[in-house]
C-alpha cells in the first residue's frame, strides 16, 4: 500500500524511510508515556498477573503475543516490575520457571525507554552465560521477542568463530549475549568496542559465572564496565555471598527469591528417584533402562567427556533402537549446535552429556534425566535434573549412586531440600552387556583406547572431587569397573601409581622383615608361592602389551617382573649376602646398602662381594672402566652383557683432564698442596697482596689505554683538518683526490648537488618509507645520504668530540 501523498512512482526505499521516520516519531510519544507509567509502577503490588498489566512498549507486547506468552510466572511477576524501575536484582527461582524472560523484557524495555538504539549509542546491555549453548538459547529468546518492531542491534559472541568477523559487527551492537571468555577477549582486543555507556549487566546462571572457574575472566570484564549500571543476576541456585555482591558493585540489590519457602528446591511436577548401583553395573543398568524406554526423550549425565564418548560409541555399535546423541565440551562448536538442535527437535532420543548441558538449556519435553555419574554437589544435581519438568510439565529424574556415595549424597540433597526416593532395578530385566563390550574392544583397538581413557578420566574425576564424604576412591572397585567397560584389567594411572609403588614397597619390605626374622624355610617358600600364583598365558601377555602403548604402562610389566622374579631373587641374594657378611641389621637387608665410608672401602666390599659370589659359583665379569665387578646372577643380567648402551651405565664416569705446557695431565680443578699454601702467609694477607698487585696492573693498563685514546683523537683531528682543507680547495674549483676520506666526501657532495632540492624534500619521506616498504639496502642508501647531508652542514662547525666522530664514521663509510 502506498502512503497518502506519495505517487506510485516513488521508490520503495523512500516509503520505508518515511514509515521509519513516522515510527520514530510515535516512539517518542510512546517513550514519554511509558516513562510515566513505569514511574507509577509499584513493585510491591502483587496484582500484576499478565504481561499486559505492565507498562511495556508496543514492540515487546507484540513479541510476547507472537510467542503466546500471556500469564507471567512468579519470578517474572516479581522481578520484571523491579527491573523496569532500575533496581539491581538477585533473582532465584526453580529450574524452568521462566527466568530468561525476567531479564530479557527489562533489557529491551529499559534500553527502549532510554532510546539506546543505533550505531552511535554503543553497547547498552551485556548478558553473560556460562556456556555457549545457553548463550545461543538466550539470544534466540531475545530475537524472537525483539523482532516485532524493536530496532536494537543485538549480537552473540561465544567463540568458535573468527574474531575478525565478530569484531566488525561488535562496534554497532546495542545488546550483546556471550560467554565470559569471548567477551573478555573482545574487550581487551577490539579497540572500537565501546562499553563506556553500558546500562545493564545480566548474569544468567549467576552462581556458576561467579564461581572459581570464571573468576579471572569475570573480574577482568568488570574492570572494563562502568560502575554506574543496573545489574541483574539470575539462577536456580543463588549464592548471596557478600564478596560476590561487592565484586559486582551491586547497589542495594533486591532479593527476589520466589520459591525459597517451598518444601522442595526442584519443580513440583518432577518425580525424583535414585537407585543403588555398584560402579561395575552402571552400564548394564543404563543399557537396560534405555532398552525399556525407547519411546522417550532421555538425557544422561556423565562426569567426563571421555566417558560420554565411550558410552556413545559403544552403545551405538550395539543397535540400541533409539537415536543416540552426545555432547561435551571437547566437541567442535558446529557439532555441539547440531546436537542441541537435533535433541530439541527429537521426539524420541537419548543424549549423553557432560555438565556442559547441565545448566539453563531448555530442551522441550524431556522425559528422563538420568545422572549416571554422581554430580559433584547438590547444586549440580538440581541443575541437571532441571532439564526436565520445565514450565509446569512433568518429568522424571533418576540418580545412580554407588553404595559408598549413597549416604553422603543423600545428606547433601536433603540439606538443599531435594526430595529423592529410592527405587529398585528389576533384576530380571537387567541385561549384561559386558561380553559384548569385551568382544567389541577386542576387535576395535580405538574403542579399547577410548575405554581406557574413560576409565582413567573417571578415576581422576573421583580423585579430584572435593566432597570426600561422598567420593572416596578407596570405596570403588576399580578392577571390576574396568571389567564392566570391557577392559581386561584396570589400566594403571600415573597419580595412583606412585601411591601404589610406595605401598608395594612397604608391603614387600614388611614381608621380608617378617620372613627373615622367622625361620628360613618360610622365607624360601614365599617366593615359590608367588611364582606359582602368576602363571600367565599367551593371551594375558597379548592384552598387557596392547595396554602399554596407550597408557605408557611399560612399567607395569617391569614392576611385575621385579616383584615376581627380581624382588624374590634379590631378596634371596640379599639374605645370602647378609649371612655371608653381617647378619645383624634386618632393615638394611631389604635394600642395597650404600655405605657412607669412602670409595676405597666401597670397592673393597664390592670386591669382597664378588669373591664371595664367585665362591658361590656365580659368574663375575670385570668390566673395563668400571670400578666394581659385575655379578651375573640372573638371565636379565646375562642379557645385559649384550647391550653396549646398558653396560655404559655401569661403567664409571670419566674425568675431564687438561694438559699443561709440558704435556702433563691435570684435572680441571686441582687443589693446591696445603703446606705450600700456608707457607705463603695468612690467607687475609695473601688476599691483600693479590688485590694490590691487581690494582697496580690495572692502573698501568689505564695509563697506556689513555695514551692510545689520545693518539687516536689526535689522528682523527688531523684527518678532519685535511678534509677541511680538501673541501675548501674543492669549493674553489677542482676536486683533489687525496685519501679515501676526501674521496668519499667528494662523492657525497656530488650526490647532494645533483639531488639538490629533491633530496631535501625526500629526506623525511625516505625515512618514513623505510619503515613500511623500503628494503634494507634502500634504507642504507637513504641513511648514507642523510649522513652526507649532516656531514656537509656540520663540517663547517663541529661542536663536540661526538660530532667529530660521527663525521669521521660517515666519511669512512
Ligand atoms: P529458567 O531459566 O527459569 O530455567 P526458562 O526461562 O528457560 O526457565 O523457561 C522455561 C520454559 O518456560 C521455556 O520453554 C519458556 O518458553 C517457558 N516460559 C517462560 N515463561 C513463560 C510464560 N510466562 N508463559 C509460558 N511459558 C513460559
Ligand atoms: Mg535459565
TrEMBL record:
<keyword id="KW-0378">Hydrolase</keyword>
<keyword id="KW-0690">Ribosome biogenesis</keyword>
<comment type="similarity">
    <text>Belongs to the DEAD box helicase family.</text>
</comment>
<feature type="domain" description="Helicase C-terminal">
    <location>
        <begin position="278"/>
        <end position="441"/>
    </location>
</feature>
<keyword id="KW-0067">ATP-binding</keyword>
<feature type="region of interest" description="Disordered">
    <location>
        <begin position="507"/>
        <end position="537"/>
    </location>
</feature>
<feature type="region of interest" description="Disordered">
    <location>
        <begin position="693"/>
        <end position="801"/>
    </location>
</feature>
<dbReference type="InterPro" id="IPR001650">
    <property type="entry name" value="Helicase_C-like"/>
</dbReference>
<dbReference type="InterPro" id="IPR014001">
    <property type="entry name" value="Helicase_ATP-bd"/>
</dbReference>
<keyword id="KW-0694">RNA-binding</keyword>
<feature type="compositionally biased region" description="Basic and acidic residues">
    <location>
        <begin position="693"/>
        <end position="708"/>
    </location>
</feature>
<feature type="region of interest" description="Disordered">
    <location>
        <begin position="564"/>
        <end position="584"/>
    </location>
</feature>
<keyword id="KW-0547">Nucleotide-binding</keyword>
<keyword id="KW-0347">Helicase</keyword>
<dbReference type="GO" id="GO:0005524">
    <property type="term" value="F:ATP binding"/>
</dbReference>
<dbReference type="Pfam" id="PF00271">
    <property type="entry name" value="Helicase_C"/>
</dbReference>
<dbReference type="InterPro" id="IPR000629">
    <property type="entry name" value="RNA-helicase_DEAD-box_CS"/>
</dbReference>
<dbReference type="GO" id="GO:0003723">
    <property type="term" value="F:RNA binding"/>
</dbReference>
<keyword id="KW-0698">rRNA processing</keyword>
<dbReference type="InterPro" id="IPR025313">
    <property type="entry name" value="SPB4-like_CTE"/>
</dbReference>
<dbReference type="GO" id="GO:0006364">
    <property type="term" value="P:rRNA processing"/>
</dbReference>
<feature type="compositionally biased region" description="Acidic residues">
    <location>
        <begin position="513"/>
        <end position="525"/>
    </location>
</feature>
<dbReference type="InterPro" id="IPR011545">
    <property type="entry name" value="DEAD/DEAH_box_helicase_dom"/>
</dbReference>
<dbReference type="Pfam" id="PF00270">
    <property type="entry name" value="DEAD"/>
</dbReference>
<dbReference type="GO" id="GO:0003724">
    <property type="term" value="F:RNA helicase activity"/>
</dbReference>
<feature type="region of interest" description="Disordered">
    <location>
        <begin position="1"/>
        <end position="28"/>
    </location>
</feature>
<dbReference type="GO" id="GO:0005730">
    <property type="term" value="C:nucleolus"/>
</dbReference>
<dbReference type="GO" id="GO:0016787">
    <property type="term" value="F:hydrolase activity"/>
</dbReference>
<dbReference type="Pfam" id="PF13959">
    <property type="entry name" value="CTE_SPB4"/>
</dbReference>
<feature type="domain" description="Helicase ATP-binding">
    <location>
        <begin position="80"/>
        <end position="256"/>
    </location>
</feature>
<keyword id="KW-0539">Nucleus</keyword>
<protein>
    <recommendedName>
        <fullName>ATP-dependent RNA helicase</fullName>
        <ecNumber>3.6.4.13</ecNumber>
    </recommendedName>
</protein>
<feature type="compositionally biased region" description="Basic residues">
    <location>
        <begin position="709"/>
        <end position="722"/>
    </location>
</feature>
<dbReference type="InterPro" id="IPR027417">
    <property type="entry name" value="P-loop_NTPase"/>
</dbReference>
<comment type="function">
    <text>RNA helicase.</text>
</comment>
Amino acid at each position: 500500500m502506498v502512503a497518502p501523498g506519495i505517487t506510485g512512482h516513488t521508490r520503495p526505499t523512500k516509503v520505508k524511510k518515511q514509515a521509519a521516520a513516522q515510527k520514530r516519531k510515535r516512539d517518542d510519544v510512546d517513550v514519554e508515556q511509558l516513562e510515566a507509567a513505569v514511574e507509577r509502577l509499584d513493585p510491591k503490588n502483587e496484582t500484576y498477573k499478565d504481561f499486559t498489566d505492565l507498562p511495556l512498549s508496543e514492540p515487546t507486547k507484540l513479541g510476547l503475543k507472537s510467542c503466546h506468552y500471556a500469564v507471567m510466572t512468579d519470578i517474572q511477576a516479581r522481578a520484571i516490575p523491579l527491573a523496569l524501575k532500575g533496581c539491581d536484582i538477585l533473582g532465584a527461582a526453580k529450574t524452568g520457571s521462566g527466568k530468561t524472560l525476567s531479564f530479557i523484557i527489562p533489557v529491551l524495555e529499559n534500553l527502549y525507554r532510554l532510546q539506546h538504539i543505533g550505531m552511535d549509542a554503543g553497547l547498552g546491555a551485556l548478558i553473560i552465560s556460562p556456556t555457549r549453548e545457553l548463550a545461543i538459547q538466550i539470544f534466540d529468546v531475545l530475537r524472537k521477542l525483539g523482532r516485532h518492531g524493536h530496532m536494537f542491534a543485538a549480537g552473540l559472541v561465544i567463540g568458535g568463530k573468527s574474531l575478525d568477523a565478530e569484531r566488525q559487527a561488535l562496534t554497532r551492537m546495542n545488546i550483546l549475549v556471550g560467554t565470559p571468555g569471548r567477551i573478555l577477549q573482545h574487550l581487551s582486543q577490539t579497540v572500537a568496542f565501546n562499553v563506556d555507556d553500558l546500562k545493564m549487566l545480566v548474569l544468567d546462571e549467576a552462581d556458576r559465572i561467579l564461581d572459581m572457574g570464571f573468576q579471572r575472566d569475570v573480574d577482568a570484564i568488570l574492570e572494563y564496565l562502568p560502575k554506574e549500571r543496573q545489574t541483574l543476576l539470575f539462577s536456580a541456585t543463588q549464592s548471596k555471598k557478600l564478596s560476590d555482591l561487592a565484586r559486582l558493585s551491586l547497589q542495594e540489590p533486591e532479593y527476589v527469591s520466589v520459591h525459597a519457602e517451598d518444601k522442595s528446591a526442584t519443580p513440583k511436577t518432577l518425580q525424583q528417584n535414585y537407585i543403588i548401583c555398584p560402579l561395575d553395573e552402571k552400564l548394564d543398568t543404563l543399557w537396560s533402562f534405555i532398552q525399556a524406554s525407547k519411546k522417550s526423550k532421555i538425557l544422561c549425565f556423565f562426569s567426563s567427556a571421555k566417558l560420554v564418548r565411550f558410552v556413545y560409541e559403544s552403545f551405538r555399535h550395539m543397535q540400541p533402537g533409539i537415536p543416540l546423541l552426545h555432547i561435551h565440551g571437547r566437541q567442535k562448536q558446529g557439532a555441539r549446535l547440531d546436537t542441541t538442535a537435533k535433541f530439541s527437535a527429537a521426539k524420541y532420543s537419548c543424549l549423553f552429556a557432560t555438565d556442559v548441558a547441565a545448566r539453563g538449556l531448555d530442551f522441550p519435553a524431556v522425559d528422563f534425566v538420568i545422572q549416571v555419574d554422581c554430580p559433584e554437589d547438590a547444586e549440580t544435581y538440581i541443575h541437571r535434573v532441571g532439564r526436565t519438568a520445565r514450565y509446569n510439565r512433568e518429568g522424571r529424574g533418576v540418580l545412580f549412586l554407588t553404595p559408598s556415595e549413597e549416604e553422603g549424597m543423600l545428606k547433601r540433597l536433603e540439606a538443599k531440600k531435594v526430595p529423592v526416593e529410592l527405587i529398585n532395578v528389576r533384576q530380571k530385566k537387567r541385561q549384561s552387556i559386558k561380553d559384548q563390550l569385551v568382544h567389541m574392544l577386542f576387535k576395535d583397538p580405538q574403542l579399547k583406547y577410548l575405554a581406557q581413557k574413560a576409565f582413567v578420566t573417571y578415576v581422576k574425576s573421583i580423585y579430584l572431587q572435593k566432597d570426600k564424604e561422598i567420593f572416596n576412591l578407596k570405596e570403588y572397585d576399580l578392577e571390576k569397573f574396568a571389567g564392566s567397560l570391557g577392559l581386561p584389567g584396570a589400566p594403571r594411572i600415573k597419580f595412583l601409581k606412585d601411591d601404589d609403588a610406595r605401598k608395594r614397597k612397604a608391603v614387600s619390605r614388611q614381608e621380608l622383615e617378617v620372613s627373615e626374622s622367622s625361620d628360613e624355610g618360610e622365607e624360601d617358600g614365599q617366593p615359590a608361592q608367588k611364582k606359582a600364583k602368576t602363571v600367565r598365558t599367551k593371551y594375558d601377555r597379548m592384552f598387557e602389551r596392547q595396554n602399554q602403548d596407550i597408557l605408557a604402562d611399560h612399567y607395569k610389566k617391569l614392576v611385575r617382573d621385579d616383584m615376581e622374579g627380581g624382588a624374590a631373587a634379590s631378596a634371596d641374594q640379599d639374605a645370602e649376602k647378609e649371612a655371608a657378611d653381617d647378619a645383624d641389621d634386618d632393615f638394611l637387608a631389604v635394600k642395597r646398602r650404600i655405605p657412607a665410608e669412602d670409595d676405597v672401602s666401597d670397592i673393597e666390599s664390592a670386591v669382597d662381594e664378588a669373591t664371595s659370589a664367585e665362591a658361590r659359583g656365580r659368574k663375575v665379569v670385570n668390566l673395563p672402566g668400571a670400578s666394581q665387578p659385575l655379578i651375573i646372577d640372573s638371565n636379565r643380567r646375562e642379557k645385559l652383557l649384550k647391550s653396549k648402551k646398558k653396560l655404559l651405565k655401569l661403567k664409571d664416569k670419566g674425568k675431564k683432564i687438561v694438559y699443561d705446557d709440558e704435556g702433563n695431565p691435570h684435572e680441571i680443578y686441582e687443589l693446591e698442596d696445603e703446606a705450600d699454601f700456608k707457607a705463603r702467609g695468612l690467607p687475609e694477607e695473601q688476599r691483600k697482596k693479590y688485590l694490590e698487585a691487581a690494582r697496580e696492573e690495572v692502573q698501568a693498563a689505564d695509563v697506556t689505554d689513555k695514551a692510545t685514546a689520545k693518539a687516536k683523537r689526535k689522528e682523527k683531528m688531523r684527518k678532519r683538518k685535511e678534509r677541511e682543507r680538501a673541501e675548501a680547495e674543492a669549493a674553489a674549483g677542482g676536486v683533489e683526490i687525496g685519501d679515501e676520506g676526501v674521496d668519499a666526501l667528494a662523492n657525497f657532495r656530488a650526490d647532494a648537488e645533483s639531488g639538490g632540492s629533491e633530496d631535501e624534500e625526500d629526506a623525511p619521506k625516505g625515512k618514513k618509507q623505510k619503515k613500511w616498504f623500503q628494503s634494507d639496502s634502500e634504507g642504507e642508501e637513504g641513511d648514507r645520504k642523510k649522513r652526507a647531508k649532516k656531514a656537509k652542514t656540520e663540517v663547517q662547525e663541529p661542536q663536540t668530540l661526538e660530532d667529530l666522530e660521527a663525521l669521521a664514521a660517515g666519511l669512512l663509510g
